[in-house]
């Protein structure tokens, strides 16, 4: 089984919800939490742990064996990214930042062994033990690298190989193709929003995406006491997505960030919200 925690712009409290609900859901399922917000993963920070068991995420780039290359320029001609430039005599050179790793150059090269398998580092994945009885899988895109998809795919694959009863994915903000990839195979999306015009706008995009992907959505309103929730209620009604929890603006949650100790572990009122939500999710999944 898989559920996803998703939502709009960064800072809506998506990761806070993901780590707290993961801890609370551990009571019901053997689970893995996967942080697929690969451009800015922060679940490990909220859990107060250091990332471990690093594995590289690498893609193909061509490496030329100039002793075999016949300077035919075919590799440069086929490259849609213009990542291969050639000298006047046909000698090819790669501009690695432009290469999309499509492999077309290797396919068209008429000389066996003139293009060798090179590797381009895109980022890393990690599997980290947490003190809460479940592993955290994290994808982290290399700084300056723009293509997040290979890292999302690699991290999700690594999370699935752990073969737990439940996989909780914490997606990036928004509705990009990497978010869709993270959401794939989910039985439920918990859409985190806040009562602001931007929050409402982003929530609608998330609900639309869940509708297109045929995945049920539930809504959690973060900082629910700071704005008008009527429009969120209307949107929830329109998309048949129940509002399952409201989290108030909370000093206790802020303190939990500072201490790196998830709030669900405490006895405060906010902890009970996460525990109740986890029970509802567990009931839904079973
Ligand atoms: S792998 Fe694709 S993008 Fe990269 S150099 Fe070859 S043809 Fe161009
Ligand atoms: S296609 Fe192969 S042989 Fe032709 S220029 Fe490129 S690397 Fe050299």
Automatic annotation (TrEMBL):
It comes from the Archaea. Residues 60-90, 92-120 form the 4Fe-4S ferredoxin-type domain. GO terms for molecular function: oxidoreductase activity. Signal peptide: none annotated. PANTHER family: 4FE-4S CLUSTER CONTAINING PARA FAMILY ATPASE PROTEIN. This is Cobalamin biosynthesis protein CobQ. It comes from Thermococcus paralvinellae.
């Amino acid at each position: 089984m898989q559920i996803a925690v998703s939502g709009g712009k960064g800072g809506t409290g998506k990761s806070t919800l993901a780590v707290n609900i993961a801890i609370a859901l551990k009571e019901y399922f053997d689970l893995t939490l996967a942080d697929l917000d690969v451009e800015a993963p922060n679940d490990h920070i909220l859990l107060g742990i250091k990332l471990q068991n690093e594995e590289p995420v690498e893609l193909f780039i061509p490496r030329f064996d100039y002793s075999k290359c016949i300077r035919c320029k075919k590799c440069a001609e086929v490259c849609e990214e213009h990542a291969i430039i050639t000298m006047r005599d046909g000698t090819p050179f790669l501009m690695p930042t432009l290469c999309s790793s499509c492999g077309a150059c290797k396919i068209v090269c008429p000389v066996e062994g003139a293009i060798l398998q090179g590797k381009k580092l895109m980022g890393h994945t990690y599997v980290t033990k947490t003190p809460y009885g479940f592993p955290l899988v994290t994808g982290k895109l290399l700084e300056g690298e723009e293509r997040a998809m290979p890292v999302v795919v690699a991290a999700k694959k690594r999370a699935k190989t752990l073969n737990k009863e439940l996989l909780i994915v914490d997606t990036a903000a928004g509705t990009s193709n990497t978010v869709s990839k993270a959401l794939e195979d989910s039985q439920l999306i918990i859409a985190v929003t806040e009562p602001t015009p931007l929050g409402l706008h982003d929530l609608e995009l998330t609900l639309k995406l869940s509708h297109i992907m045929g995945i049920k959505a539930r809504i959690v309103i973060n900082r629910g006491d700071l704005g008008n929730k009527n429009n969120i209620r209307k949107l929830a009604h329109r998309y048949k997505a129940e509002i399952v929890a409201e989290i108030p603006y909370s000093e206790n949650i802020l303190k939990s960030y500072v201490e790196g100790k998830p709030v669900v572990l405490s006895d405060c009122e906010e902890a009970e919200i996460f525990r109740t939500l986890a029970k509802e999710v567990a009931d839904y999944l079973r």
